[in-house]
Amino acid sequence: MAGKPVLHYFNGRGRMESIRWLLAAAGVEFEEKLIESPEDLDKLKNDGSLMFQQVPMVEIDGMKLVQSRAILNYIATKHNLYGKDMKERVLIDMYTEGMADLNEMIMLLPLCPADQKDAKIALIKDRTKNRYLPVFEKVLKSHGQDYLVGNKLSRADIHLTELLYYVEEVDSSLLANFPLLKALKTRISNLPSVKKFLQPGSQRKPPTDEKKLEEARKIFKF
Amino acid sequence: MFQQVPMVEIDGMKLVQTRAILNYIAAKYNLYGKDIKERALIDIYSEGVADLNEIILYYPFLPPGDKDGSLTQIKEKSRNCYFPAFEKVLKSHGEDYLVGNRLSKADILLTELLYHTEELDSTVLANFPLLKALRTRVSNLPTVKKFLQPGSQRKPFEDEKFVEELKKSFG
């Protein structure tokens, strides 16, 4: 396993941020080759590095992995963050996919036309409070353990912690009625690798503002 | 769990989230490769299939005015992006299956996609001989052959009448 993973993406959260979180939490140092112009993206496409002409792409262990779920699955398995057997894996997958659904809504919010934004935010708040967070609070309550699955840190805990930070960015009062989730978020945030990633100057990316959105629009042509 | 279907009751569990269900079934029946690297390839290919399948999946439910644009997108992406990528994989190793010279969920998901794309674009496979061969090969497996026969649990293309009925049930 020579060399650090290299992440190919633009300088924003998008679909690469969960990968940055997972690598960081696993204590894996990584490099980033930032795509700063449409020409940078074209170069990657033209040299055959992108199987479906899309990023994220991560160079790791001699492979050029694309598709964020494939990349996350590989990192989780490699670093023992994917449960101990099939039954733990399916729980992790169910929780992770639910989180991905909510995360997608939040991630796409900046793209929402101004006249639809309030309705979208209301929907996100409703889903957060009534569909998604209660499920994870209930899981933690049901077994009383420190982690979602198997009494051991897994990718599900890391993805959830990341998501809870985004939920707070939308509305900090959303976590008010979820004490066990708050405790999990604190616990994970205090892990040395995560604590380091949460500090200023790390490779963690800030929320996507107008300027960042314009940059993404230019590079990805949407 | 998240107030949505699909839900599959299996081995004493109530599984939701399509990918969780697919991953569980694939692992249980040895359709998920032999090691972490094969799994990565299977995941990459399966996710690519899922991206194109998602556009096709929504197609019957689009308002009539949006259908043409979507169909153009489906034709363009399958012919210019996805199918060339999979044809290249098969060409690169010359084996009968996408990964590890062995049947995996990637072959099955791709075969399903090839049928569904062809329903919308009947000549789409014209320039992809290896994909056609893979589809034939997988379709001739006894289990798949049985599933492809009339009267199986395979569901037909969602036509306008079906979509109307569905809207009534799910609101």
Automatic annotation (TrEMBL), chain A:
GO cellular component terms, A-Z: cytosol; extracellular exosome
Where would I find the GST C-terminal domain in this sequence? 85-208
A Pfam family recorded for this sequence: GST_C
One Gene Ontology term of the molecular function aspect = glutathione transferase activity
Reactions catalysed, semicolon-separated, are: RX + glutathione = an S-substituted glutathione + a halide anion + H(+)
Q: Which domain of life is it from?
A: Eukaryota
- UniProt-listed GO biological process terms: glutathione metabolic process; xenobiotic metabolic process
Keyword Transferase included in the entry's annotation: yes
> What are the UniProt keywords, alphabetically?
Transferase
| Name this polypeptide is given | Glutathione S-transferase
For this chain, the family text in UniProt reads: Belongs to the GST superfamily. Alpha family.
State the EC number(s): 2.5.1.18
What positions does the domain GST N-terminal occupy? 3-83
Gene3D superfamilies documented for this protein: 1.20.1050.10, Glutaredoxin
